[in-house]
Amino acid sequence: MSTSTNIRAAEVVLPCPELAPTIAFFVDVLGFRLDAIAPADAPRTALLSGHGLRLRLLQGAAGAPGVLRLCCDDPARVAGGAGELIAPNGTRVELVAAEPPPELPPLVPALVLTRAGDDAHRGVGRAGMRYRDLIPGRLGGRFIGSQIGIVAGGPVPDYVHYHIVRFQLIYCLRGWVRVVYEDQGPPFELRAGDCVLQPPHIRHRVLESSPGLEVLEVSCPAEHETFADHELALPTAELRPERDFGGQRFVHHQAASARWDAWRFPGFLARDTGIAAATAGLADVRVIRPHGADATPDARHDGELLLWFVLAGSVTWSGPRDESLAAGDCVVVPPALPHALTACSPDLELLEVRLPA
After folding, report:
1. Of 57, 52, 53, residue with least CA distance to 24
2. What are phi and psi of 86, to 5 degrees?
């Protein structure tokens, strides 16, 4: 028998100087239940359970009283909204939101240029995936941009999970990856040029990929947790493409069937991914290519993020200095900085990510 199947339960042991008032606190204030107490004539130990946790209180035992965090739908409705309580035995009880909104650090604007061949910001991340950092300074922690690769291909050691994020884009640069999303039908392949908008809380899983897969991910905030969902099996039975996830809808944009329309600058076309509509204007993601022009007029923006990633061809980014960009190069333009695109090659394709739309 393995260790995991031989374990029936886990307990947190808390010392307490006096048993009775500590039991009363956990039962009457926090909603635990008393499951066992001993000895009957002069109790010194008690077993309590509640909220997915077992507590063993030991009167007179040595050790720190510890910290207990209770995740609540609405912390303000627990214990008068105190936020933190101290049990009679000294245990600090933190009352926090079960699924708090993402914390957005203040934006620290910066001009960021990363080159395709620069290995200074590469590493190995979750599930063995290789990461290239496109925004090393994170703009103060507001955004992260990553070029993510899987070298060997085949099944991916992933699991059903979700993120609490404000915005998250996955754009397939090359190869294919098979993925599945909550309430969005059976697994499908994301191929080069395709992208998905992953709304907050949507459960998903990466199943397998081609050798040499590369995707680009842009997320806000830069640091966010990945939560495993051990209960939900994907795919789900229902198909709900219009389901709202934290004010956003899931998007699976397919390049092969997409339409090209005029961009905001004349002489260029843009492939709209539909993300602006799905996020109610929070973000916009487009692919740009020349259509009769090789340069844009000088411009500036007043948003949080303007990121350009060169998918193909070449272009010169003109700002405080001229920078020649080729496939794989990435530039993040800070607000209010005058800039332009010049010397656009006829085969240029540029991924643009803007917040807000």
Report:
1. 57
2. -115, 120
- Amino acid code (one letter) for 277: A
Residues 6+ apart with CB under 8 A from 314: 324, 325, 326, 327, 343, 344, 345, 348
What are 82-133's pLDDT values in tens digits? 889 999 999 999 999 888 888 899 999 999 999 998 765 566 655 557 889 9
Please state, in angstroms and as integers, the Cα–Cα distance from residue 280 to each residue in 104, 167, 284, 341, following that order: 19, 12, 10, 28
Residue 269 to residue 284: CA distance in whole angstroms: 15
Q: Higher-confidence residue: 318 or 1?
A: 318
For 145, list phi and psi in degrees, rounded to 5. -125, 130
Question: What is d(CA 294, CA 275) in angstroms, rounded to the nearest whole number?
Answer: 27
H or E element, residue 20 = helix 19-24
Residue 287 pairs with which residues in a beta bridge? 271, 351
Own/partner pairs, 293-296, CB within 8 angstroms, 24+ separation: 293/265, 293/266, 293/267, 293/268, 293/344, 294/267, 294/342, 294/343, 294/344, 294/345, 295/340, 295/341, 295/342, 295/343, 295/344, 296/265, 296/268, 296/340, 296/341, 296/342
Residues 6+ apart with CB under 8 A from 109: 139, 334, 335
Overall pTM surpassing 0.90 (yes/no): no
